[in-house]
Recover the amino acids of this structure.
């Protein structure tokens, strides 16, 4: 494996500001430090730059792009390591998918992480990711002490799908992926988009009940 830190790919350098280039290079260095024993510079750079491209193509605010790219690349590299048997963990991975990854799947992710703690891993994604999380979803979850403000809409990728043990779909229809050998659940839930806070609270509570049932089926004790 190479010991050199990754850096922004050539196709990005010409479009980034000096601060963005510095932030992305710093992000690449952190990823290299975290995954140096598992993946080389080229793989890390590929995941970082393609993650950056994903967010840059639809971002309305660009200041946080390097950070979002780093976080998404880290998740994807962890998923790839699990798929390739390089991640030493037996924790089950649940993946929550909806259309915009802005409401239902984000609330499910919040519930799962809150209730399961470090006993399991949860990720989320959307077929058509929005640019921000539904603010009523954020507010409804905050009311019960679960903070999802640090999350962000993102797509699913092949390595993330392959790493999941359970895939929960919520209204993504024909766009929902089908991977052999995975456990699937389809939750029929109202889309919180353009709904009132009162309606979103009801969706939140229904998701919470479904997540508890899922955790019970995985033999995970909830907090």
């Amino acid at each position: 494996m190479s010991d050199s830190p990754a850096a922004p790919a050539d196709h990005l350098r010409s479009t980034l500001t000096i601060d963005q280039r510095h932030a992305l290079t710093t992000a690449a260095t952190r990823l290299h430090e975290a995954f140096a024993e598992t993946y080389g510079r080229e793989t890390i750079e590929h995941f970082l730059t393609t993650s950056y491209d994903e967010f840059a193509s639809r971002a309305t605010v660009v200041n946080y792009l390097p950070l979002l790219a780093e976080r998404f690349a880290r998740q994807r590299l962890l998923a790839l390591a699990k798929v390739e048997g390089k991640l030493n963990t037996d924790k089950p991975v649940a993946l929550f998918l909806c259309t915009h990854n802005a409401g239902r799947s984000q609330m499910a992710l919040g519930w799962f992480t809150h209730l399961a703690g470090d006993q399991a891993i949860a990720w989320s994604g959307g077929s058509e990711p929005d640019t921000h999380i539904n603010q009523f979803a954020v507010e409804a979850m905050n009311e019960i002490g679960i903070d999802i403000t640090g999350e962000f809409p993102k797509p699913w990728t092949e390595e993330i799908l392959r790493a999941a043990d359970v895939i929960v779909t919520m209204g993504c229809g024909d766009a929902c992926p089908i991977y052999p050998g995975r456990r699937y659940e389809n939750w029929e839930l109202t889309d919180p988009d353009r709904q009132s806070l009162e309606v979103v609270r009801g969706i939140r509570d229904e998701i919470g009940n479904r997540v508890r049932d899922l955790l019970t089926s995985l033999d995970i004790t909830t907090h």
The first strand starts at residue 93 and ends at 98. The chain has two domains: 10-83, 93-217. Residues 125 and 154 are 5 Å apart (CA to CA). Strands lie at 93-98, 121-126, 166-170, 183-186.
